[in-house]
Amino acid sequence: MKERNEVILKTINRLLKEEKTERVIAVLGRLYPADAAEIVGSLDEEHQKAIFERWAPDQSASAFLELEEGDQVDIAENLTLNAISEILNEMPADDAADLVADLSGDLAENLLKSVRSEVETEIRALLKYGEDTAGGLMIPEAVTLKKNMTAEEAIDELRRMAPNVESIYYIFVINDENQLVGVVSLRDLIIAPASAMIKDIMNPDVIYVEATADQEETAKLISKYDLLALPVVDGDNHLLGVVTVDDVLDVVEDEATEDIYRLAGLTKEEKIASPVMDSFLKRVPWMVLNLGTAFLASSVVGLFEESISSVVTLAVFMPIVAGMGGNGGTQALAVTTRGIALGELELSSGLKALFKEGLIGLMIGLTTGLITAIVAFYWKGNVFLGLVLFLAMIINLLIAGLSGAGIPILLKRLGYDPALGSGIIITTFTDVFGFLAFLGLATFFLKYLI
Amino acid sequence: MKERNEVILKTINRLLKEEKTERVIAVLGRLYPADAAEIVGSLDEEHQKAIFERWAPDQSASAFLELEEGDQVDIAENLTLNAISEILNEMPADDAADLVADLSGDLAENLLKSVRSEVETEIRALLKYGEDTAGGLMIPEAVTLKKNMTAEEAIDELRRMAPNVESIYYIFVINDENQLVGVVSLRDLIIAPASAMIKDIMNPDVIYVEATADQEETAKLISKYDLLALPVVDGDNHLLGVVTVDDVLDVVEDEATEDIYRLAGLTKEEKIASPVMDSFLKRVPWMVLNLGTAFLASSVVGLFEESISSVVTLAVFMPIVAGMGGNGGTQALAVTTRGIALGELELSSGLKALFKEGLIGLMIGLTTGLITAIVAFYWKGNVFLGLVLFLAMIINLLIAGLSGAGIPILLKRLGYDPALGSGIIITTFTDVFGFLAFLGLATFFLKYLI
């Protein structure tokens, strides 16, 4: 598929050079929107503008919404107000609202005034919800039926109204107050006898989510119950819209990227293709913060300059104690944050996880401490050096396990993202306490080490 | 939903104490399979056995396949051969094959002999493909039609055959050689005029995947084209089965967990609820390997014992140079591995990514090196110490950026997982070269530092 796109891209570049924009649009129109977006996304600004301004709105909207969010904003700012509002008219309302939320206030306001009034109403309604909630993720339309209808009547009704709805996954059954009372899958509707009543084939125990719920909770429900779409309701069980599984797939990928990035001290928005200066400006504050904590660790070492000056070998072993603590802490942190993200760790079992990671830290400290002690004894010929390293490793890996599990659990309980900043706090802990334990013990046994 | 399950669990525990297993089964039967699995999964082995052995196979299969893979194996080994083979008869073939693949050879072989013969054939066919390929992920059945049929005839045909198929997402159109020639969504079928011909409403440009393709590629296609299901074909375009979006959601979550774990030096299988001894045994080899590389870094420090002995302050600044290099490398590594995982980094643009990360490393090295130099100068009053730190930080962060991007790209090009082992290699690089640069430069300028 990728190779095919590259061949098409070459053709399109040739056609653009010959200024045959209409031909380019004809070629793009025959592709899947995702492929057309991939190709248009790799063209320069001027050609993107030329294409989107002459393309039929329904087709350009399909391709436009497959672009990366950053590219969407760049192109939208570049197009005439008329061209972008025609695209917006044809986009699913959830994607349109996400785009409007990302534009500057003035442009957003002008755009909302120039789209069709029912589109404006839908977008404004969605903008009330945060981009990261079920409400922000939903398409504010659902295929609904009443329960006193036969399967055949329902199919006829669908045939009449379906062309207006982007995709049908389930049909939701509502009462006269627009409250959700059941769900029928398209499959169940088709295989039911033509005369079966909707109320008899529907499932009255509908899985739903409230509009204000977080997108992670929404994703978990769809994943747990293997759903294609999840109905979104308000506090009184009125049906507001549906979140579809393809949006949730994006959420799961985004949340995973966010976790990996936050554990490494990066912000969510950075991409492998971001410009150097953008990446630098996003990473440097974090690195300066890291530098501050590194100075903290180094000032702990400073407390023991005298001991190091009498036994220089201590400096040789410092990286081992600190490094192993950092690694142990990172392992405990990865298991704990992932457990929280996947919903496997209930907060009530936090104490159990803390105890477990402390115990594992202790066991790893014993094992690697023993190896370190033996190597140090054979290398430097001093049994007390071995003893000091053994004890320091046990203490530091215990602290690593406890902080690696405890800090994300604590952050989560305080309402913060458990991945954000955990890494830096834990490395600071293991550096500071690692040096304190190792150099403190060495100072205590100093006369045996010289 | 969670609270509801806890209330039900209490009721079930009471019923189990009173040995009313039939009542328990009645309660479980009214739940969504995912909820029933959550509850059964938290019971002890004996009760799990009692429930699964008396439960109707179709219901127990639905709950069974929602259990974690590890729990499935434990329970399967515990049940009578008869009970587990009845469950297997009712499970979708892809899940059944995954379970059989995880069981011991003897048990697996006995099971395959005791299930229905068509189930055995299906499972054996799937076992040919790796668990992590499209073939291993697919359900070996698809709803197919021929193209010379009207929409109405197609719906009648579906009504006749659909009860045998787990879920219908798309209807695939095949020719007389069982080759894939088109696809029709259920929605398009329903909204088409009753007399429309399938060949006129089908999309002949089907997105498909070969059975031997990796599960990551499969997930990327479903995600890119927003599909509900992806047809799987052999080398001659014969339709073999379909991979559904709910399986892909699990793949995306698993791959993200795998990446996070591998970056932290953990194996995929570990969970927050794994027993302490399991976790310890899985983590300790990695930590011993880490210890080896830590000794490598420490032996670099050992080369400069004399310099440290004349200027003990060097020991104080060692953690800063090494720590900042490690952090910078981790940032570059996270961006690069995630870019590879999400398909944003083509191997052809690897050199560009390498250059970018090197440049960012240089810029961060300049910034944080300057800060470190100024702080060191004010703290210790020696301008040469500042200069040495400045240069060492630039060198180390350049190396951090280059290795953070270069090592995963190299691993990927050599056909390995880019996340596996990258972290440990990069930390070793930044430790070894960080100490070498800092202590080497310090030794060169030694007479100005004393």
Q: What is the oligomeric state here? A: homodimer
Largest sheet of chain A: 3 strands, mixed
Mean pLDDT reading of chain A: 87
Q: What is the H-and-E element order of chain A?
A: HHHHHHHHHHHEHEEHHEHEEHHHHHHHH
Beta-strand fraction estimate of chain A:
5-15%
Give a quick set of tags describing it.
homodimer, 6 strands
Explain how this protein is built.
The structure is a homodimer of 450-residue chains. In chain A, helix 15 (215-224) links the parallel strand 4 and strand 5. The mean pLDDT of chain A is 87. Chain A has 23 helices and six strands. Helix content of chain A is 69%, strand content 6%. Chain A is elongated and about 90 Å long. The first copy, chain A, has 450 residues and is mainly alpha-helical. In chain A, helix 1 runs antiparallel to helix 2 (21-29), helix 5 (57-64) crosses helix 7 (81-90) and helix 8 (93-102) crosses helix 10 (117-127). In chain A, the strands form two sheets. In chain A, strands 1-2-3 form a three-stranded mixed β-sheet. The interface between A and B is large, with 107 and 107 residues.
Summarize the structure.
Two copies of one chain form a homodimer. By secondary structure, the first copy, chain A, is mainly alpha-helical. Chain A has helices spanning 2-17, 21-29, 33-41, 45-54, 57-64, 69-78, 81-90, 93-102, 105-114, 117-127, 134-137, 151-161, 186-191, 198-201, 215-224, 245-264, 276-302, 305-310, 313-341, 350-380, 383-413, 422-444, 446-449; strands at residues 144-145, 170-174, 180-185, 209-210, 229-233, 239-244.
